[in-house]
Amino acid sequence: MPPSVRKKTQASGAKKKRGRAARAKKAERRREWRLALPLPARVEGRLPWGPEFKEDATVENISSKGAFFCLDSGLSVGSKVNIIIDIPEQAGGGRKLKLRLGGITVRLEETGKQGKRQGVAVRFKKDYKLIPADGSD
Amino acid sequence: MPKGKSKKRTAKPSAKASAPPPKNIRVVLYCPSEIILSGILKAMDDSLDIEISAVEKNTLESFIDAIKRSHPHVVLFFGSEPLLNIREICKAIQDVSAASGKSRLLLMGNIPSHEEIVSLINSGARGYFDLNDNAGQLTEAIRVVDRGEIWLPRDKMSSIMDRIISVVGRDMKEKTLDQLTPTEFQVLRLIGQGKSNDEIAEMLFISKNTVRSHIKSIYAKLDTHSRLQLALYAINSALF
After folding, report:
1. ipTM over 0.90
2. Could you give the C-alpha distances from B70 to A134, B13, B140, in angstroms and in order?
3. pLDDT band for position A30 (50/70/90)?
4. Which of A 34-93 lie inside 8 A of B, CB atoms?
5. Nearest chain A alpha carbon to B188
6. Structural domain total, chain A
7. Which superfamily is assigned to B15-154 in CATH?
C-alpha cells in the first residue's frame, strides 16, 4: 500500500476510533446509579428575574451527582438551587432527617409530570448535609 | 394450505387478504356481556386465520371445561369481575392450559392501573387488550399472543416498562447489598442516617480506621465513589 494511502487510512481509522469513543462516552457518562426515590423535597433558589422562590416538589430520581424533579417556578438553566429532601424516620434510624443539597440546573424539560410546569435536572455542587428535621427550618 | 381458505381469500379485496394465513388459531372466548361479545365477534369477523371454537358466557366452570375440551391456541377472556378474581382465574386458566397443551391467555377489560396489568401478566396472562383500544387491533393481539409474545396497550407500555425497570433495578441493587457483611451493612445504614466516621466508630465500638476500611470495602462492593451515594443507597434500601 502506498504510504500516502496508508496514512489516510490510519488517519480515518483513528478518527473513527475517536468518534466511537466519543459516542460511547456520550452514551454512558453517568458513573453512579440513579435511584428512583420519590421523596418530598423543598426547592429554594432565585428566579431568573430576581425574586427568591420556595416550592415543594417530589424527587423523581437522584444520584450523588444530581437529581431530577418537577417544578412550577420558571427556572432557567444555570440557576442555583438548594434542595432539602425529607428523609422518613424509617430510613433515619427512628428520626426524621433532612438531606440538604446545593446545585445548579443543567437541563429543563418543557412539560413536567404531576401538573407541574417543567422538569428540572440539577447537578449538585456543594457537599451534602444530613440534619435532623426539627432543627433545620 | 386448505382450499376453502384460498376461496374465501379471493373474495377479499385488500392486499392483506392475498397473503395466505399461516395457520388457524383456535380461540375460546369468555364474555358474559352480550353487547361486548357482539363487538368482539364483529371485530374478528374478517379474520380468516382465527377460528372461534367455543364461546362461553355463562359460568366460569363451563368456560374452563371448554378450554379442556377444545385445546385452544388462545383463550380470550373478558373480565368484568374484581381483580382478585381475575388473578385467580388467570392462574386457573394457566393450570388448565399447562395440562391440556399450549393455550395462551389474552385478557380483555377496562383496567386503568398498569401495576394491576403487570400483576395479571405475572399471574399467567400473555396479553391485555383494553376496551378503549381500536377494535381492529384485536385480531392482531390474538396473533401476537399466539406467537408467544406479549400484547399490551401502547399507552400503558411505557409506564409498565418503567415499573419493570424499577423492579429489575431494585433486584440488582438488593443483590449488590447482599454482598455486604453485617458490619458493612450497619456502617452503610449509619451513613444513611448522617453519622460521621467518628460517630460510627463510637456506636459500633470499632476504631476509626476500621470504619474507613469498611467504607472502602462498601465503595468497592457497590461500585460507588461517594459518601452521598452510599447515603442514598442506605435510604433507598431502608424505604423500598
Report:
1. no
2. 67, 32, 22
3. low
4. 35-37, 39, 62-64, 87-88, 90-93
5. A91
6. 2
7. Response regulator (3.40.50.2300)
